[in-house]
Structure formats: C-alpha cells, structure tokens
Design brief:
Helices cover 44% and strands 22% of the residues. The protein is of the alpha+beta class and 383 residues long. It folds into two domains: 187 residues, no CATH class; 183 residues, no CATH class. The chain is globular.
C-alpha cells in the first residue's frame, strides 16, 4: 500500500474588486476560447471530413495571443488547459459511441453558455502560479500569486501537505475559491480495530450496518424544498436582464449551495465515523445513474447522495489505510442472510421473514449482512 497519495486542498479567496473583475474576465475568455475551438472542429469536419487535435489547436495559441491582446493577458497554461478540457469531452463522446449507451444517441460536446463555465486551471505549479508566505509547519499566512492578476489574499483554514502540482480557480455562489492539488501527501493510518461490516444504503434510513445499526437519513433537500421553491418563484417574478433578477438568482444559488454543503458535511462525518470503527467496509456497487430513471424515487435518491458518499468513503479509506470494497448488488435484499434462500418481496415490503429458516429482521439489515458475506467471499475470507 502506498504511503502517500494525491490530495486536493480547497481555500476561500478574498480578492479585491479589481481582482474579481479580472478573474471574471479570465473565465469569460476561457469560455470564449472553448466555444471557438469547438466551432473550429465542427466546421472542419463538415467541410473537409477532418478535425483538429488538441496539439494542433495548442500550436495556434501563439498566433492567437499575438493578434488578440485579451488572450495575451492570460497565462498560456490556462489556455492550454481549456483545449485539454475540450479534447477530454471529445474522448468521452467517442467512448460513449463505442459503448453504445444502451441504444441511446450519445451526447455530442456542446457550446458553453455564460453560466456553464466556472473555473480555470494552471496545470503546473510554479509556472504562472505560486504561494507566497508558506511557513515550515505547512500553514500559510501569505498570498496566492497569479500571473497577470497579482497577489490574492486567501483564507487559510488548514495546512497544505505534499507537493503542489496544479492550481484551479473556481467561482461559486458565495465567491471565489482555489483548489491546490498536491502529490505525495502522506497517509494518516487509523489504529487497527479488527472489525469489518457491510452497509446497505437506503432511503428509509441512509445506511444500515450488518449489526443492525441504522444511520438516520437527514433529507436535506426535502427540508429545504419550501425555501428553494420560494427563492425560485422570486427569480421567476423578476424581469429578465434586470439587476433585481441577478440578485434573486444569486440568492437562489446560495440556497442550493447550502443544501449541497449540508449533504457533504453529513457524508464526510458519517464516512469518518465508520472508518474509525471498522478496518474494512463492504458496500454495494451502485449504479445510481440508472436508479435515477425511476421517477417516483429520483428526487429522494438524489437527495441521499449515495454516489457522493461512496466516493468520499473510498477516498477517506485510502487516506486512513482502510479498505472500502464494492460488491455486486444483485439479490442482496431478496436473499435470506440466514439460509441463502431467495425470498421475493416488493420494494414496499420492509421486513424480511424467511419461511424456510425462520430468520426475521428488517429488509435493510438482511441486505447489509448479505453484503458483508459477499464482500468476504470476494476477498477469499469465507468459502
């Protein structure tokens, strides 16, 4: 097991009004470059049946910067990253074409509107971006220095570990943020407990453990739904293009951001709590994208945020020297955890009662026990 990992540290920026305008201008020009490069690829394909590669378009940046002062004022690595993003979307499109996507028409890369581009990246730390004022213990009290923008104040909330590699500046509902991706960040293993468990993610309870413990589902979106509805109505009543509408849109975005952060905070705390108790955690390999096609449960599934939780759990497990193992989800709820007989039951039936061995317990508890057993078999721990 590796003793170091890649880790990203996120901090709030405190730019001056002039710096905010400059950051917004960079976003605007990056979006413009993306759309222009996409249009070039589409036009060449329609006219000649050929397309431009990422490297061919990067080679044209020198002439573009010489002809247009707006792009000359942006660091070259930022512009190169924009073209890399476009190339990534094309590769994803070709991958979907090859996989077939279940008979559906694969989505082609589309042009980005003014509200669909929120970040730009310096792909090499020390070239266009650096930190000024790093202390020996990792804490910072200085600035983030951005090429052609200047020294930007940062709200340092924790020490940076590892070697900075890339820096991404992003705009969110409540301001600007910086994400510093660091390589060789040291792991921090937790003490070994000798315990392991299976977890079944659900809607009635957020998660049920193999010992029957249930973790409450906070339902953050459901609780905030009326507040979000009011904020959305406020936007609808405002005249398009007006200052009051822009203000209402910002308030709506902040309301959604609050729900998102409440959910993420819960997921981080729950994952850490489980990893402190168990060395190995088995969970279902859920395909939430397919589950969201159920229109009766889509809102509740999205509100639970299973996919985000499993990503956080896996990342924290690697960081803490633990194991998070995904197992196939087929029949985990229908199979009896006592004798292995399949006992069919509808989704509305919340209690498992086996007619063969007499096992009687909650449906999710039964599934968690099956998940644990399947994970152990997958790792060769049981026959």
């Amino acid at each position: 097991m590796a003793e170091s990992l890649r880790k990203t540290f996120k901090f709030k920026l405190k730019p001056t009004p002039e710096q905010e305008r400059e950051l917004a201008r960079v976003l605007w020009q990056c979006r413009r470059l993306y759309n222009t490069a996409l249009e070039q690829r589409i036009t060449l394909w329609k006219q000649r049946g050929v397309t431009r590669s990422q490297y061919e378009q990067e080679a044209e940046l020198k002439d573009l910067r010489a002809e247009m002062p707006d792009y000359a004022a942006i660091h070259s690595h930022v512009l190169q990253d924009v073209l890399a993003r476009l190339n990534k979307t094309y590769q994803a499109f070709f991958r979907r074409v090859q996989q077939g996507e279940g008979g559906k028409k694969p989505g082609f890369p589309r042009f980005q509107g003014r509200n669909r581009w929120h970040s730009f990246t310096y792909k090499e730390y020390g070239n266009g971006v650096r930190l000024d004022g790093m202390l020996d213990n990792g804490f910072l009290n200085g600035f983030l220095v951005l090429s052609k923008i200047g020294h930007v104040a940062v709200r340092w909330s924790r020490p940076i570990e590892g070697t900075p590699k890339t820096v991404t500046i992003s705009q969110e509902a409540d301001g600007w943020y910086v994400c510093i991706s660091c390589a060789e960040a040291p792991m921090k293993p937790l003490p070994i407990t000798g315990q392991e468990t299976g977890i079944d993610l659900g809607l009635e309870s957020f998660a049920t453990l193999a010992d029957g413990t249930m973790i409450h589902n906070p339902r953050w979106y459901r609780k905030a739904e009326q507040r979000l509805k009011t904020a959305q109505r406020r936007v609808s009543r405002r005249k398009k293009g007006s200052h009051r509408r822009r203000k209402a849109v910002k308030l709506l975005a902040k309301a959604h951001q609050t729900v998102k952060r409440q959910r993420q905070d819960f997921q981080h705390k729950t994952a850490l709590h489980l990893l402190r108790q168990y060395d190995t955690i088995y969970h279902e390999d859920l395909q939430t994208a397919n589950m969201l096609k159920n229109h009766h449960l889509a809102k509740s599934i999205a509100d639970a945020g299973w996919s985000g939780f499993l990503s956080i759990l896996s990342a924290k497990a690697a960081w803490a020297g633990r194991s998070a193992v995904a197992v196939p989800p087929a029949y985990t709820s229908q199979t009896c955890s006592g004798c292995g007989v399949v006992v069919w039951k509808a989704l509305s039936v919340r209690w498992h009662a086996c007619p063969d061995c007499g096992t009687s317990l909650h449906r999710d508890h039964n599934a968690a026990r099956n998940i644990e057993r399947a994970g152990q078999a997958l790792r060769g721990e049981v026959a």
